[in-house]
């Protein structure tokens, strides 16, 4: 099946040229410096048959209390956009292969300087009903993004800075 593309409508969250892939259902895979607008994002992946949306939002933490407790002043995210967005599309394809009831998928990662209490990543999956795996699909989306999408994070504290390397192996991938 040849994918078709729908050029994004005017939106506060997405660039005017956003391509939303339409095979049977909408898919968004986006690296952006813009704020993430949850309502706009969900509108892009909602169909007339949608009755449920499972959403995960990752945030910048100002205080980390587990492992090595510390304060974060801000984070800087970087990505090689073409490669990262291709990997995000791969994650969406994997979600569709595992949960065929998922209708829309949005995977959005912010880059740039982000301060505490700011959303950094958003995963949204929609489906006709809540009991069709939509929660598991969204969880898989964030876990898989952390595993394969090339996004780099540098953490700045009051007196230090360091590149952060994730060491979490999600349960779904073990």
Major sheet, described briefly? 6 strands, mixed
Task: Output the strand order for the largest sheet.
Answer: 1-2-3-8-10-4
- Label the structural class: alpha+beta
Q: Indicate how many domains the architecture comprises.
A: 1
Assign an overall shape.
elongated
The helicity comes to 10-25%
Instruction: Could you tell me the CATH topology label.
Output: Aldehyde Oxidoreductase, domain 3
Q: Assign the CATH architecture.
A: Alpha-Beta Complex
Tell me briefly what this model is.
This protein has helices spanning 38-44, 81-98, 134-148; strands at residues 4-7, 19-22, 26-32, 52-59, 63-64, 70-71, 74-79, 105-110, 112-114, 119-127, 151-156, 161-164. The chain has three helices and twelve strands, in the order βββαββββαβββαββ.
Q: Which helices and strands appear, and what pairs or packs with what?
A:
Blueprint: E1 4-7, E2 19-22, E3 26-32, H1 38-44, E4 52-59, E5 63-64, E6 70-71, E7 74-79, H2 81-98, E8 105-110, E9 112-114, E10 119-127, H3 134-148, E11 151-156, E12 161-164
Parallel strand pairs: 3-8
Antiparallel strand pairs: 1-2, 2-3, 4-10, 5-6, 7-9, 7-11, 8-10, 11-12
């Amino acid at each position: 099946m040849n994918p078709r593309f729908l050029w994004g409508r005017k939106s506060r969250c997405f660039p005017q040229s956003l391509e939303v892939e339409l095979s049977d259902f909408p898919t968004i895979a986006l690296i952006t410096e813009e704020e993430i607008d949850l309502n706009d994002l969900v509108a892009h992946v909602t169909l007339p048959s949608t009755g449920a949306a499972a959403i995960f939002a990752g945030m910048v933490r100002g205080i980390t209390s587990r492992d090595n407790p510390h304060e974060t002043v801000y984070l800087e995210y970087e990505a090689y956009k073409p490669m990262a967005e291709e990997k995000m599309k791969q994650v969406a394809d994997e979600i569709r292969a595992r949960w065929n009831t998922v209708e829309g998928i949005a995977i959005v990662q912010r880059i740039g300087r982000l301060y505490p209490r700011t959303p950094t990543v958003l995963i949204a999956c929609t489906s006709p009903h809540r009991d069709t795996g939509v929660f598991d699909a969204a969880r898989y989306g964030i876990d898989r993004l952390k595993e394969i999408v090339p996004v780099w994070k540098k953490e700045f504290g009051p007196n230090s800075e360091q590149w952060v390397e994730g060491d979490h192996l999600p349960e779904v991938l073990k």
